[in-house]
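Sequence, please.
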């Protein structure tokens, strides 16, 4: 989707700074996410990708600068208003973050219950619908410990999309997955974009996936946006930083177990 963006962005980050104690993690990040696109957020470990993603749904607030969702500054939003933002923007956390003591069904239903949906039949209908989307139909009664890593990721994805968000943020959805299962996640993301018009922002180290699903790349280095462009532009670049990243994150041998 190579196009000039005339529309207002869905999420706009303007000169965001964030420190933890004396550790200055985000050093003036400015960027934007547009409706309907799939953006890959890339960069070396510890560069601030997860921290930036958490700013996009107000889980972290900037020390300086602003985060806009639908052109509204979210820093001074009340918890209720932030709740509305999180209904529009779903997040799949690094590591999946399922509740181990809850069944797959309850994990997926959680966002609906949380925002006060009490109609049992409606909850059931939506959970079943979304489990079907991630190809886990009939798995609702399982506990997270009883299913594979790839399936847990798909449960986390089901939970992120159950409340029909306009945008989904994924923190390393491919990590720890074999290539076939990682492909399934890619297909799911692409389907959400093409069939439901969902905007995707995905942190990943898998260049294979980036070239397959991303319309645009935002590359972070040391707390700043270092490069923005299409995957093709990134590939064509002779910048050693980008060349090294691509070389270091392409086609590694898979050493984990198959799911
Ligand atoms: N809540 C926190 N408290 C203190 N330090 C934090 C917190 N969250 C993140 N950091 C620090 O901020 C820096 C950036 O972290 P972040 O998780 O954003 O990196 P990342 O780019 O996502 O890296 P990775 O690819 O390893 O996931 C790290 O040094 C991390 O230790
Ligand atoms: Mg991270």
């Amino acid at each position: 989707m190579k196009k000039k963006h005339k529309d207002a962005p869905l999420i706009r980050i303007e000169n965001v700074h964030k420190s933890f104690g004396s550790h200055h993690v985000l050093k003036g990040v400015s960027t934007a996410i547009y409706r309907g696109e799939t953006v890959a957020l890339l960069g070396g470990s510890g560069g601030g990708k997860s921290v930036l993603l958490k700013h996009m749904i107000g889980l972290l607030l900037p020390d300086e600068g602003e985060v806009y969702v639908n052109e509204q500054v979210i820093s001074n939003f009340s918890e209720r208003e932030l709740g509305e933002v999180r209904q529009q923007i779903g997040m799949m956390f690094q590591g999946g973050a399922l509740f181990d003591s809850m069944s797959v069904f309850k994990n997926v239903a959680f966002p609906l219950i949380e925002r006060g949906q009490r109609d049992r039949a409606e909850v059931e209908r939506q959970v079943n619908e979304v489990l079907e989307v991630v190809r886990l139909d009939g798995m609702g009664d399982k506990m997270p410990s009883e299913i594979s890593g790839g399936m847990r990721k798909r449960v986390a994805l089901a939970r992120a999309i159950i409340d029909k968000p306009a945008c989904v943020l994924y923190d390393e959805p491919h990590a720890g997955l074999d290539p076939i299962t990682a492909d399934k996640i890619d297909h799911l993301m692409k389907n959400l974009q093409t069939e439901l018009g969902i905007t995707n922002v995905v942190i990943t180290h898998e260049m294979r996936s980036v070239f397959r699903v991303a319309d645009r790349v935002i590359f972070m280095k040391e707390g700043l946006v270092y490069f923005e462009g299409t995957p093709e532009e990134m590939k064509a670049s002779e910048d050693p930083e980008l060349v090294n990243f691509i070389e270091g994150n392409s086609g590694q041998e898979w050493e984990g177990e198959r799911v």
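The pocket of magnesium ion (ligand 2) is lined by residues 49-50, 94, 171 (CB under 6 Å).
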